[in-house]
Write a structure and sequence with these properties.
- The chain is an alpha+beta fold and 389 residues long.
- 52% of the residues lie in helices and 14% in strands.
- The protein has ten helices and ten strands.
- A four-stranded mixed sheet has the order 1-4-5-8.
- A hairpin with a 2-residue loop joins strand 2 and strand 3.
- Helix 7 packs antiparallel against helix 8.
- It is globular and about 80 Å long.
């Protein structure tokens, strides 16, 4: 039997990155997390800290001015930021979500024009796929893009757009051929400053309150023809390929939220005394902690496994089970995050239910990870189709 096989674990460099991000998040992001949530305001302190340390969009390749971090390193960054503040973790996560369509399908000119400013921290990049009547059924979108000479004119409204109004750039999916179904959808880059672009009011949400979620409204938005991402009619294919990569970043966010809650709960049960001893001495509490940690580590390993496959796919390798593993890690990690944060609230008892402690915020933040970038019910459909095809 050969013992010459690669160790399945993050590299020493990636673990150093984790330590660096955790230290930064604890010092520059965590102190503002409760305030950001309470005031429902954008975490500017987090953006400033991430940009200053080149951690806001680590996935952008070096050839476009970025750090060139691989998918696993990107997952680690998002995970560690989410451990401190889920809203803040959407800065690196959504920058990846918005730019992956350009990386996968955009022209070289488009990549050079838009990835550089994101890499430098001069702009953020959001993703506009969903509509009020086209959420899980994204192919049912109504937003139209009509060719007019050398330009495209877009009309419609996109719903639930993360960091809308803050981001300078938007990947927008729109129907270019209504008779062709999903094959009649194309992808475009729209700029915040384009005439006709406006935003709805901020949604009043259960969690991730520091990340603005708004409609992106397009009224006769005229953009140059070269802002199409890939060939006409390939937008929906690009959208699905993008989600194969970015569902993994939502899993990373879920891991971070869960880890933050578990860490706080462990510290609490060591200090909180009842019946003359720390409640961490009681077997019932220990079993809860053990289950939380076991499930979290299982979800982490699946997410890291998916991230490695994502990286290989981004370099052109055909990965037949990428859709399966990305859906599986997203569904598992988000379900685990909801369970772990709920148990963390339980372990803190009445204190856990108050805003004096962070676990109730983490529980509220965890819920969205089961919903966006494809609900976990949709993920299970995707997984089943992969198994049965």
């Amino acid at each position: 039997m050969s013992h010459d096989f690669p160790v399945y674990a993050p590299s020493e460099e990636q673990e150093l990155l984790r330590a660096t991000v955790r230290e930064l998040a604890d010092a520059k992001i965590a102190p503002f997390a409760a305030e950001v949530d309470e005031e429902s305001r954008f975490p500017q302190e987090a953006l400033d800290a991430l940009v200053a340390n080149e951690l806001h969009a680590v996935h952008v390749p070096e050839s476009y001015g970025g750090a060139g971090a691989d998918a696993l390193a990107t997952v680690i960054v998002i995970e560690e930021v989410a451990r401190a503040c889920a809203s803040s973790s959407l800065i690196p996560a959504v920058n990846k979500l918005g730019t992956v369509p350009v990386l996968l399908s955009g022209s070289e000119e488009l990549k050079r024009k838009y990835l550089g400013p994101v890499a430098r921290g001069e702009a953020m990049f959001s993703y506009a796929l969903s509509e009020a009547d086209a959420g899980s059924d994204a192919a049912g979108m109504k937003t139209r893009a009509v060719r007019d000479g050398d330009a495209w004119v877009l009309n419609g409204a996109k719903m639930w757009i993360t960091n809308a109004g803050v981001s300078e750039y938007y990947t927008v999916m729109a129907v270019t051929d209504p008779s062709a179904g999903a094959r009649g959808i194309s992808a475009f880059v729209v700029e915040k400053s384009d005439p006709g672009v406006s935003f709805g009011p901020k949604e009043r949400k259960l969690g991730i309150k520091g990340s603005p979620t708004r409609q992106v409204i397009l009224e006769d938005v005229r953009i140059p023809g070269d802002r199409i991402i890939g060939a006409e009619g390939t937008g929906f294919k690009t959208a699905l390929a993008t989600l194969d990569h970015t569902r993994i970043t939502i899993a990373a966010q879920a891991l971070g939220i869960a880890q933050g809650a578990l860490d706080f709960a462990i510290g609490y049960v060591k200090e909180r005394r009842q019946f003359g001893k720390p409640i961490g001495d009681f077997q019932g509490v220990q079993f809860m902690l053990a289950d939380m940690a076991m499930r979290l580590e299982g979800a982490r390993q699946l997410t890291y496994h998916a991230a490695v496959k994502s990286e290989r796919a981004m370099h052109g390798e055909k990965i037949p089970d990428l859709t399966f593993v990305s859906s599986a890690c997203k569904a598992l990690a988000s379900d685990v995050a909801m369970d772990v944060t709920t148990d963390a609230v339980q372990l803190l008892g009445g204190y856990g239910y108050t805003r004096e402690f962070p676990v109730e915020r983490m529980m509220r933040d965890a819920k969205i990870t089961q919903i966006y970038e494809g609900t976990n019910q949709i993920q299970r459909m995707v997984i089943a189709r992969q198994l049965l095809k």
